[in-house]
Design a protein that fits this description.
Number of domains: 2
CATH class of the largest domain: Alpha Beta
InterPro entries: 6-PGluconate_DH-like_C_sf, NAD(P)-bd_dom_sf, UDP-Glc/GDP-Man, UDP-Glc/GDP-Man_DH_C, UDP-Glc/GDP-Man_DH_C_sf, UDP-Glc/GDP-Man_DH_dimer, UDP-Glc/GDP-Man_DH_N, UDPglc_DH_euk
CATH superfamily of the largest domain: NAD(P)-binding Rossmann-like Domain
Largest sheet: 6 strands, parallel
GO cellular component, one term: nucleus
Strand content: 5-15%
Organism: Kalanchoe fedtschenkoi (Lavender scallops)
Oligomer: single chain
GO molecular function: NAD binding; UDP-glucose 6-dehydrogenase activity
CATH topology of the largest domain: Rossmann fold
Radius of gyration: 24 Å
EC number: 1.1.1.22
Mean pLDDT: 92
Low-confidence stretches: none
């Protein structure tokens, strides 16, 4: 019986291993983490992450061939294949600060694997890592191997949050990179055999190590670039009276371009896009490619610009100040159908409004008050360290109130900011909301999910990203 162990019980490790256990009943899968609270949550009725379909998969396999444990060394020692899915935060100090990946957790994982191993192992990189990480890991393992053979593979994840289980059931592709040696080929085949339980073989792509590592960064950079491209267009649309939805629809009909990832918004978020592009920039700079680095830097700059442009629009529309004004924030997660708030644009928007002394009432159907308070008081990049190394529960920000209902959030508010495209926000009773708000009542739609004309008929002053401006807004400066 093949034994698999995954180091790291987060957004990647948990769902991926659950699906492997479901699809490969003959394989024993253990997910290990040093965070006891996280493991306890995986073993409880309330899983530590929300993902549609995840709970069903876990319940079918848990205790049968899927186990969650904090006894890290035992399970690593027993495993034939070890997936490493630990944090790779952006460095906050030292060389490459603000761009390079911090491999502290990766390195300690590799040293621990070398220490406890008594049999040959295949070690699989699963978390997003900078190109050439495998080489560094290989060196650590080989110099500490005590005669044991380790093969390193890169098997990057391409999961989209909100659809992770579906993505795992029916992946576009599974990418496996390994050494171009007989031993490397054998290790690639062993991992390929696991995925072949349910993934068509023509969708399993085998490459060298560096191609696999770089493909992950490239895929995320290309996706983020599309969002920044349409967001750059949204600013021009507002200036000219064009409608970004019509423009992106027309552009997306070109089969060479396609329609996906062309929705204008308040900006992209999530744990990977910014981190991976920063990583790509750093690798380009280290390899003497400043022009390439600058090209990718612009993708992040446009994303930051879009968030600050949104905040400016809110403040300038509301008579150039939101000081003491109540703003309802609908949605805090970085996108719908997930409770994940990592790098969510909502953080920068809320901080921008708080900087002008606004009072925020925040509602998100999946994000807890503790998480929102932590996110708004944490330093940049702190979120990407293991939970036990993050700052302790912060003192609550007095100007922030977290409520559990959109109507409660909008009661007596001067304005509403829609920052996540949750379906429920499309069907709210906006007449009821309008009746309970201060007048003039403003709505700033950062996701273009509401019908501006209908809301204007009710009486709202509406700003939708990249859409023709309200007569009211045309007379206001775009920047506070």
């Amino acid at each position: 019986m093949v034994k698999i162990c995954c180091l790291g019980a987060g957004y990647v490790g948990g769902p991926t291993m659950a699906v492997i256990a479901l699809k490969c009943p003959d394989i024993e899968v253990a997910v290990v983490d040093i965070s006891v609270s996280r493991i306890n949550a995986w073993n409880s009725d309330t899983l530590p992450i929300y993902e549609p379909g995840l709970e069903d998969v876990v319940k079918q396999c848990r205790g049968r061939n899927l186990f969650f444990s904090s006894d890290v060394e035992k399970h690593v020692a027993e495993a034939d294949i070890v997936f490493v899915s630990v944090n790779t935060p952006t460095k906050t100090q030292g060389l490459g600060a603000g761009k390079a990946a911090d491999l502290t957790y990766w390195e300690s994982a590799a040293r621990m694997i070398a220490d406890v191993s008594k049999s040959d192992k295949i070690v699989v990189e699963k978390s997003t890592v900078p190109v050439k990480t495998a080489e560094a890991i290989e060196k650590i393992l080989m110099h500490n191997s005590k005669g044991i053979n380790f093969q390193i593979l890169s098997n990057p994840e391409f999961l989209a949050e909100g659809t992770a289980i579906e993505d795992l059931f029916k992946p576009d592709r599974v990418l496996i990179g390994g050494r171009e040696t007989p031993e490397g080929a054998k290790a690639i085949q062993a991992l390929k055999d696991v995925y072949a339980h349910w993934v068509p073989v023509d969708r399993i792509i085998c490459t060298n190590l560096w191609s696999a590592e770089l493909s992950k960064l490239a895929a995320n950079a290309f996706l983020a670039q599309r969002i920044s491209s349409v967001n750059a267009m949204s600013a021009l649309c507002e200036a000219t009276g064009a409608d970004v939805s019509q423009v992106s629809h027309a552009v997306g009909k070109d089969t060479r371009i396609g329609a996906k990832f062309l929705n204008a918004s308040v900006g992209f978020g999530g744990s990977c896009f910014q981190k991976d592009i920063l990583n790509l920039i750093y690798i380009c700079e280290c390899n003497g490619l400043p022009e390439v680095a600058n090209y990718w830097k612009q993708v992040i700059k446009v994303n930051d610009y879009q968030k600050s442009r949104f905040v400016n629009r809110v403040v300038s529309s509301m008579f150039n100040t939101v000081s003491g004004k109540k703003i309802a924030v609908l949605g805090f997660a970085f996108k719908k159908d997930t409770g994940d708030t990592r790098e969510t644009p909502a953080i920068d928007v809320c901080k921008g409004l708080l900087g002008d002394k606004a009072v925020l009432n925040i509602y998100d159907p999946q994000v807890t008050e503790d998480q929102i308070q932590r996110d708004l008081s944490m330093k940049k990049f702190d979120w990407d360290h293991p939970i036990h190394l993050q700052p302790m529960s912060p003192t609550a920000i007095k100007q922030v109130k977290v409520v559990w209902d959109a109507y409660e959030a909008t009661k007596d508010a001067h304005g509403i900011c829609i920052l996540t495209e949750w379906d429920e926000f499309k069907t709210l009773d906006y007449q009821k909301i309008y009746n309970n708000m201060q007048k003039p009542a403003f709505i700033f739609d950062g996701r273009n999910i509401i019908n501006p004309e209908k809301l204007r008929e009710i009486g709202f002053i509406v700003y939708s990203i990249g859409k023709p401006l309200d007569a009211w807004l045309k007379d206001m400066p775009a920047v506070a």
